[in-house]
Amino acid sequence: MHIETLTPADPAWQAQALCAQTGADFFFPEPGSSVREAKRICGMCEMRSACLEYALANDERFGVWGGLSEKERQNLRRVTP
Ligand code: SF4
């Protein structure tokens, strides 16, 4: 979850999002950069499921959401239309 991209309709889980405390930099790395740190933080985040659901429902294409990279979410969309 990335505060600046959330709509006001989705307030429930963002207050507990770990990335709101760490900043968005890890979650939107430069192309080709590692997403390991973002994933590590997501792994400790209690909002991970809600975050991933939100990203899939809103077709978020960029960055790490719910512990999954752009490519991993893309793959998930292919198997679960
Ligand atoms: S799962 Fe990751 S991207 Fe989502 S709210 Fe938690 S820390 Fe942020």
Uncertain runs are none
Rg on CA atoms, Å? 12 Å
Biggest β-sheet, characterized?
A: none
Q: Write down how many β-strands occur, each being a DSSP E stretch of 2 or more residues.
A: 0
Q: What's the structural domain tally?
A: 1
Q: Supply the helix-strand structural class.
A: mainly alpha
| Residue share in β-strands | under 5%
> Given the C-alpha coordinates, what overall shape results?
globular
Helix content: 25-40%
How many individual helices?
4
What compounds sit in this structure? iron/sulfur cluster
Average pLDDT over all residues: 86
Order of helices and strands: HHHH
Determine the N-to-C terminus distance.
22 Å
Family: Belongs to the WhiB family.
Cofactor: [4Fe-4S] cluster
Keywords: 4Fe-4S, Cytoplasm, Disulfide bond, DNA-binding, Iron, Iron-sulfur, Metal-binding, Transcription, Transcription regulation
Function: Acts as a transcriptional regulator. Probably redox-responsive. The apo- but not holo-form probably binds DNA.
Short description:
With 81 residues, the chain is mainly α.
Q: How is the topology of this model organized?
A:
Elements: H1 19-22, H2 36-43, H3 48-57, H4 70-79
The protein binds iron/sulfur cluster.
Iron/sulfur cluster (SF4) is lined by residues 1, 17-19, 27, 41-42, 45, 47-48, 51, 64-67.
